[in-house]
Design a protein that fits this description.
- 3% of the residues are buried.
- With 88 residues, the chain is mostly helical.
- The longest helix is centred in the C-terminal third of the chain and has 31 residues.
- The radius of gyration is 28 Å and the shape is rod-shaped.
- Helices cover 75% and strands 0% of the residues.
- It is built from four helices and no strands.
Length: 88
């Protein structure tokens, strides 16, 4: 999730981009934009970069283990193939 400072900064930039007549209401607009952004981002079910990196590492380790197991199965299948010594 975005940290509150980033969210405040984004809301402030959006509010400051409003036309001059509306900028008088900038503080109110900023609060409303921040609340709207926060609500919208909460609905996206985002993960933090740290959570993403942890899951990426878990996936990489799982793929490595899978490759080792696939190679071992292929080796065992070759050893048990018909017509090869010890296949009986």
């Amino acid at each position: 999730m975005l940290d509150p400072k980033q969210l405040d900064d984004l809301a402030q930039r959006l509010a400051s981009a409003m036309p001059k007549g509306i900028q008088m209401l900038q503080e109110d607009i900023g609060r409303n934009l921040r609340a709207s952004l926060e609500s919208g981002l909460d609905k996206l079910d985002l993960v933090t970069r740290e959570e993403f990196d942890v899951q990426s590492a878990v996936l990489a380790r799982s793929r490595e283990k899978l490759a080792v197991l696939e190679a071992r199965i292929a080796e065992l299948e070759r050893a048990l193939a018909p017509g090869r010594p010890g296949a009986d």
